[in-house]
Amino acid sequence: MTAIEELMFDYFEISKVLIIAPLRVAQTTWTNEAQKWEHLKRLRLSKVLGSVSEREKALHEDADIYIINRENVQWLVENHQFDFDMIIIDELSSFKSHQSKRFKSLRKVRPKVSRIVGLTGTPAPNGLMDLWAEINLLDMGERLGRHITRYRDMYFRPDKRNGMIVYSYKPLADAEEKIYNNISDITVSMKAVDYLTMPERIDNIVNVSLSDSEMKQYRQLENEMLLPFSDGDIDAVNAAALSNKLLQIANGAVYDENGNVKLIHNRKLDALEDLIEAANGKPVLIFYNYKHDKERIMKRFNVRELVSERDINDWIDGKISVAIAHPASCGHGLNLQSGGSTIVWFGLTWSLELYQQANARLYRQGQNETVVINHIITKGTIDERVMKALRNKDKGQASLIEAVKARIIYVKHKRDKRI
């Protein structure tokens, strides 16, 4: 936002900025940040959110910055003159799919824009293939090719396939180095721990164990893909469904074939109770995976779900002692660090992006206390494999970030607005 302010009022190089962000970030984060800093208060912000009529009204306001959620990018491109001269994409990785409507829409108007910036802490959450669409929006295909097929041919080879149908691609031996080199001139990577005095982060594993009868049920579903009940079986039709069902059982409950919840155990709820008590009044943020997880947690504990702007502001102001959220709903962009420093993962996710982004809500710039991230893991179950997979995937992404890291030297000097 400081860059916007200088480009707009000191260099006169831009006059109208579009910020594309996750919905809740669009609702709160950018406007809250603008209000924090004296030098940003002259920036006029308009939030293009809500119903069609509300968005139309916001677009016609006389403002410097227009903030829209990413789900409405297609609507904006198709229904309005695209006269923005700078775009900021908050969470660029949400445009990683070259087949998504939001990517295709933004790509269509990209040549009209002279400046574009993409922000993300997870540039390649599922591998290097994710980079093509993101970088394509930045440079219109100059570095990684104008088409995804060309990118695949240059840097990958078919991996899993059935005849002519290719399900996945594997990077060539030298692909990482070549890709990193090609994008290095437009990529700046900075980790808070490298440039800021960050508090300690403690990752804690809290193990729980199933009884013999509970583990027997788990193994039966794992081996036979079916766990029969008189009023509705638990049935896994394929490997993906089985993984999903096993994660649910590890958490304590599972949906049957009729959509009803079968309670298996309360081991994680008991562990969660101990963790809340151990926090000794300090705020706790719980991440859950399934709806029945949330329902069981809310039934047992006095918790508040972070849903609305008011919920988020109350957490920030320290008015909520125990909060609950799904990582997909508040995993990106929200500044929640002032509200607490303790996270509990009640149920894990396979998504490295969601996992890292959710943790970064508290472990980020402005956090003054040691951040404790607790993972409740059911021993002998798929939980252990998910935890291992998240750690292994992180190695690949860490290498990407390291490869393009900018070593910035801070020099104290008088701010004279000169480059």
Task: Please give a handful of descriptors for the protein shown.
Rossmann fold, 40% helix, 19 strands, disordered C terminus, globular, single chain, 2 domains, alpha/beta
Report on this structure.
This protein is α/β, with parallel strands linked by helices and 419 residues long. It folds into two domains: 2-189, Rossmann fold (3-Layer(aba) Sandwich), CATH 3.40.50; 195-209 and 268-403, P-loop containing nucleotide triphosphate hydrolases (Rossmann fold), CATH 3.40.50.300. 40% of the residues lie in helices and 18% in strands. Helix 4 packs across helix 5 (101-109). The longest helix is centred in the last third of the chain and has 22 residues, at 382-403. It is globular, with a radius of gyration of 23 Å. The model is unreliable at 406-419 (pLDDT under 50).
CATH architecture of the largest domain: 3-Layer(aba) Sandwich
**Remind me, CATH topology of the largest domain?**
Rossmann fold
User: What Rg do the Cα atoms give?
Assistant: 23 Å
| Shape, per Cα inertia axes | globular
Unreliable segments of 5+ consecutive residues: 406-419
Task: Write a brief structural summary.
The chain has about 425 residues and is of the alpha/beta class. It is built from 17 helices and 19 strands. The strands form six sheets. The protein has a six-stranded parallel β-sheet, sandwiched between helices.
